[in-house]
UniProtKB/TrEMBL annotation:
PROSITE patterns: ANK_REP_REGION, ANK_REPEAT, ARFGAP, PH_DOMAIN. Residues 371-382 have a biased composition (Basic and acidic residues). PANTHER family: ARF-GAP WITH COILED-COIL, ANK REPEAT AND PH DOMAIN-CONTAINING PROTEIN 2, CENTAURIN/ARF. The keyword Cell membrane applies. GO terms for molecular function: GTPase activator activity; zinc ion binding. Residues 270-365 form the PH domain. It is a peripheral membrane protein. This is Arf-GAP with coiled-coil, ANK repeat and PH domain-containing protein. PH domain binds phospholipids including phosphatidic acid, phosphatidylinositol 3-phosphate, phosphatidylinositol 3,5-bisphosphate (PIP2) and phosphatidylinositol 3,4,5-trisphosphate (PIP3). May mediate protein binding to PIP2 or PIP3 containing membranes. The BAR domain mediates homodimerization, it can neither bind membrane nor impart curvature, but instead requires the neighboring PH domain to achieve these functions. It comes from Kryptolebias marmoratus. GAP activity stimulated by phosphatidylinositol 4,5-bisphosphate (PIP2) and phosphatidic acid. ANK repeats lie at residues 698-730, 731-763. GTPase-activating protein for the ADP ribosylation factor family.
């Protein structure tokens, strides 16, 4: 043990001893202040901990109350109860920790300060006193005169006694100092070690507690993932239902109909009809009260609140009659009369009154039938549909959603695991890259921005057929061959499932943003690739998406009309025409529906001139070629039409010119024409601009070349990668112009959905509509006109219906499915023998 003050040095009472004593006394004083401060802080900590425990107890009580309130949900109730019990145990452990802190820090250190430091202070007082006495004795002894022997003896005796007392006290004082210094170390370390052991016990108990709770937490975590997915599905379904109901409500507002009531004798809940009616009381005041009426079990009943037992108005509808009441002051009244009493009721409108009267009458008739008889059901008025688009009565195909899209995409080689980390069973996809992703990587891709990756769920989102085909033509294997070509060469490690998020994020950014692992082609390789793509034959014959047109059956020649017959020249056999997917009656019904809907939407803007546009659109229908004849065009100004309309053969018509330089943009240009999505993805990875312009070929873009290539999926891939749907070539023709000229109905439908401007005119002042009319392409004419009318209707409604008419959306959805799944219907060209008059 190290001695703070030397015992021999203290007997000398040297300046060195005095300096040491002064230093020790300063340290002890500072130690006392520090210990006092530490004790006070410990007391504050304990008080704050007790307050925390009190607040935590209240929080746990709130969890228990929430668990009791959720008693109907067994999962929530049991989980919250278990969590509350565990948190209560943690509160008990906290209480023990604070008690131990009070014993080890507060009590023990306070004892050390009060006992040991007090003894040191008392010893210091005695030392200071005897030091003064010794100093006085020394001075007196020095001043004693030589000739006064008695004074010398007295001074000597006092000095001797004082020195003896000083030695005794100073030795005790030094002993107290050394003991204090030694005990200080043990007491402080003992109290802190005890406090730290209390913490160790606290955290060990908490670890044991939550180790037991961990299996339950993992189980709930797995269930929570499914609950999140289910909640997202339910939210999407509810949003769709909300949108549908909102559209129906809007239509009802236009038709001034309060609600839609329908009598249903086979309703699952046994209620054939229900709704609010005013009922006149049978008291002397004849007051009117609004009640909820329903027809159920051959009875007419009403109730004020849902929990109230229904009050029966008519016990057996077979014994009653119903009639209008026009002899009272109130409007829309009717009366149900039974042998014992009558009930006067009032509807909110005439339509509702008629509906209720009809419902009661039908209930009376139904009550007489046997319950087992499947008698004649009431006819229901069907809404305008687009059934004319269905071929052969086959049901329409709808956009794929959920497991159907998931199965198709995961069947592609390499798609069964996440493209970036290898996590099996991915549920997300990047639609512009054509890859599948796990939920963690999908979140990282979403953070990159849509200019790098567009993320969509394989189970929650709806998948258009062209987008699904795009995913099936690329896939993880193809994309990784491009974006990870140099990964092993550079020694980069690919993330594995379970790796930290920041490592996966760094890898994904290096892969797609920095494109660090992409192999840059040499000039010779790039030239060979471009030349190969430019000379590549179209692969339309092997694609289910593009089928060559079948040769039509022989058609009898049409006789030319005489000049004086008054028939327009467009009806002669010299003109070729194309069959429409719509028959004339269906077209008339379809446009009539749009006209009616449009007029209802246009009542508030009669002065804007759009009403005339709707009428003009109806007149334009007269010029639409149909399967019967093209002679409906205006006779005063017949439209010239080509003698033949051969099926397009775009890639064979494109001539390859030796360019001045080879670039990734040129590779994308020719790959778009050749319908080679892997080569297109490779060109984009090499830095190709998606809207690259070929100045040597009329400023055509890859999207225009994709139109010439005839592939819907190629166009979709470019659009998903931010291609400009309205970018024009040197002739002022955009992708919509070219698709219309070539008769590619599916591409026209796609471009219209993506916001193509159908009013744009080329250098010859021709719009896509005028081109389609000249080409006698009825389907494209119909699509363009319906899109224009829908745009006008959407502008009229403003923010109340930003998506446009539901029927219009159904029509375009049917064309989308037909273009992807049954393109032969859109490529039916009929050639007629031309005969000049």
């Amino acid at each position: 043990m190290k001695i703070t003050v030397d015992f021999e040095e203290c007997l000398k009472d040297s300046p060195r001893f005095r300096a040491t004593i002064e230093e020790v006394e300063g340290e002890v004083g500072e130690l006392e202040s520090k210990l006092d401060k530490m004790v006070k802080l410990c007391i504050g900590m304990i008080d704050a901990g007790k307050a925390y425990n009190a607040a935590n107890k209240q929080f746990v009580n709130g969890i228990r109350e929430l668990a009791q309130q959720s008693a109907k949900d067994e999962v929530i109730e049991s989980s919250l109860t278990k969590f509350a019990e565990s948190l209560q145990e943690m509160i008990n452990y906290h209480t023990i920790l604070f008690d131990q802190a009070q014993r080890s820090i507060k009590t023990q250190l306070q004892t050390f300060v009060k006992d040991d430091l007090r003894k040191f202070k008392e010893a210091k007082k005695q030392f200071d006193k005897v030091s003064e006495e010794k100093e006085t004795a020394l001075i007196k002894n020095a001043q004693a005169p030589r000739n006064k022997q008695h004074e010398v003896e007295e001074a000597t005796n006092i000095l001797t006694a004082t020195r003896k007392c000083f030695r005794h006290i100073v030795l005790d004082y030094v002993l107290q100092i050394n003991v204090l210094q030694s005990k200080k170390r043990s007491e402080i370390l003992k109290s802190m070690l005890s406090f730290m052991y209390a913490h160790l016990t606290f955290f060990h108990q908490g670890y044991d507690l939550f180790s037991e709770l961990q299996p339950l937490m993992k189980q709930l975590g797995g269930q929570l993932d499914q609950l999140v997915v289910d909640a997202a599905k339910e939210k999407r379904d509810m949003e769709q239902k909300h949108s549908t109901i909102q559209q129906k409500a809007a239509l009802q507002d236009f038709s001034n109909d309060d609600t839609k009531l329908e009598y249903n004798v086979d309703a699952d809940n046994g209620i054939a009809m229900e709704g609010y009616l005013f009922k006149r009381a049978s008291n002397a005041f004849k007051t009117w009260n609004r009640r909820w009426f329903s027809i159920q079990n051959n009875q007419l009943v009403y109730q004020k609140k849902f929990k109230d037992n229904p009050t029966v108005v008519v016990e057996d509808l077979r014994l009653c009659t119903v009639k209008h009441c026009e002899d009272i002051e109130r409007r829309f009244c009717f009366e149900v009369v039974s042998p014992t009493k009558s009930c006067m009721m009032q509807a909110d409108s005439e339509k509702l009154r008629q509906a209720w009267i009809k419902a009661v009458q039908n209930s009376i008739a139904t009550a007489f039938r046997d319950k087992g008889d499947n008698g004649e059901k009431l006819d229901r008025k069907s809404s305008t549909s687009t059934g004319s688009l269905d071929s052969g009565g086959e049901p329409k195909e709808r956009s794929l959603k959920g497991e159907s899209a998931l199965q198709k995409v995961l069947a592609i080689p390499g798609n069964s695991c996440c493209c970036d980390c290898g996590q099996p069973d991915p549920r997300w996809a990047s639609i512009n890259l054509g890859i599948t992703l796990c939920i963690q990587c999908s979140g990282i891709h979403r953070s990159l921005g849509v200019h790098f990756s567009k993320v969509r769920s394989l189970t929650l989102d709806t998948w258009e057929p062209e987008l699904l085909k795009l995913m099936c033509e690329l896939g993880n294997k193809v994309i990784n061959q491009i974006y990870e070509a140099r990964r092993e060469e550079l020694g980069a490690r690919k993330p594995q499932p379970g790796d930290p998020r920041h490592e996966v994020e760094a890898y994904i950014k290096a892969k797609y943003v920095d494109r660090r692992f992409v192999r840059r082609p040499s000039d010779e390789e790039l030239r060979n690739k471009v030349v190969s793509l430019s000379k590549q034959e179209k692969r339309l014959s092997s694609s289910s998406e593009h089928l060559p047109p079948k040769p039509p059956p022989p058609t009898p020649k049409l006789q030319p009309s005489s000049h004086g017959s008054g028939q327009p020249a467009a009806a002669s056999g010299t003109e070729a025409r194309r069959d429409s997917l719509f028959c004339p009656d269906e077209l008339d019904s379809l446009f009539s529906y749009f006209d009616t809907s449009y007029k209802l939407r246009s009542m508030k803007r009669e002065d804007s001139g759009i009403q005339n546009s709707a009428d003009g659109s109806r007149e334009m229908l007269a010029t639409t070629p149909s399967s019967n004849s093209l002679a409906d065009a205006e006779a005063a100004e017949p439209l010239p039409m080509p003698a033949t309309l051969p099926p397009p053969s775009p890639c064979k018509e494109v001539v390859f010119y030796e360019p001045k330089e080879y670039s990734p943009g040129l590779q994308l240009y020719w790959a778009s024409c050749a319908h080679s999505l892997p080569d297109m993805a490779e060109a984009l990875a090499h830095g190709a601009e998606v809207n690259w312009v070929n100045t040597e070929e009329d400023k055509k873009t890859p999207l225009i070349m994709a139109v010439h290539g005839g592939s819907l999926v190629t166009c979709e891939f470019l659009l998903q990668n931010a291609a400009n749907v309205n970018q024009q070539d040197a002739q002022g023709r955009g992708p919509l112009h070219h698709a219309t000229t070539l008769g590619h109905t599916g591409q026209v439908c796609l471009f219209l959905k993506r916001g193509a401007n159908q009013n744009a005119a080329d250098i010859d002042e021709k719009t896509p509509l005028s081109i389609a009319v000249e080409a006698a392409n009825a389907d494209i004419v119909t699509l363009l006109r319906l899109a224009k009318m829908n745009e006008e209707m959407r502008e009229a409604e403003g923010p109340y219906n930003p998506s446009g008419d539901e029927t219009y959306q159904d029509i375009f959805q049917d064309f989308t499915h037909m273009a992807s799944n049954d393109p032969e219907k859109l490529n039916r060209y009929q050639q007629y023998d031309s005969q000049k008059p």
